Amino acid sequence: MKEKRTTNKPINNKTTPNFWKWAFLILLSIVLGTVIWVFSQLTAVIQGEPNLTIEEPRTDEMAFQIQAHKKDLNQLVTKYIDEELANDQVDFEFSLEDQAQLKGTFQLFGHDVQFALFLEPFVMENGNLQFKATNISVGTLNLPISFAMNMIKDQLKIPKWVAINSQKEMIVFNLNEFYLKSGIHFSANKIDLAEDDIRLTVYLPAD
To answer: How confident is the model at residue 42 (pLDDT cuts 50, 70, 90)?
Structure first.
């Protein structure tokens, strides 16, 4: 009679804790939590006059880069308009699609006219965002972009840190004037709408 031979069964690797997997998940949770917290602070803004001067990096700040998507920033802008500009009778919306789009209504010869302004974004040397107008739709009218942008500038109650230059047909988001009460502020590093890749530097007070 043959002796029954016992063999060691292979260890099931699925039950073995994967240290690096959990370390990565914990780190990812911390990063996501920080990003969500930073963006949640954007509803408390200190507004100032537009300033296009390049600021020297401060030694009393910490800086880190975050990557965002068009959907994230669209939700953020909508929340900002609804909460911060609600008392200003705002009648416009701003969104990032294939191009940046500013839509709203202004009065022309005593009548409300809907418009859609399409813009191409660029990152400036000082970290601000410049949007160059490429096309505009104003009802069934064929108006020059500069004329329509001048109407928008005169009638829309936009934030003070947003500057409209109708002659050059561009809009500048002065992020260097966009501060939170906590002292947090931002600069743009990259904006690629086609690849849905938007990168910002967040500056945090060191103390």
So the answer is: very low
55/202 Cα distance (integer angstroms): 15
What's the confidence (pLDDT) of residue 145?
93
Q: How many helices (H) and strands (E) does the chain have?
A: 3, 11
Q: Rounded CA gap, 163 and 91, in Å?
A: 17
Q: What is the model's pLDDT at position 48?
A: 38
Closest CA to 101 of 70, 128, 125, 123: 70
Q: What is the full DSSP assignment across 50-113?
A: ---PPPPPPTTEEEEEEEE-HHHHHHHHHHHHHHHSGGGT--EEEEESSSEEEEEEEEETTEEE
At a CB cut-off of 8 Å and minimum separation 6, what does 205 contact?
A: 60, 61, 62, 182, 183, 184
- Please report, for the chain, the start and end positions of each structural domain, with discontinuous segments joined by +: 30-205
Supply the pLDDT for residue 80: 72
Residue 176 near residue 127 (C-beta atoms within 8 A): yes
- Give 78-128 pLDDT, tens digit per residue: 877 776 665 555 577 899 999 999 998 888 877 888 899 999 999 999 999
CA distance linking residue 5 with residue 52, whole number of Å: 82
C-beta of residue 44 within 8 angstroms of C-beta of residue 180: yes
CA–CA separation, 73 vs 65, rounded Å? 15
The answer to whether residues 175 and 160 touch, using CB atoms and an 8 Å cutoff, is no
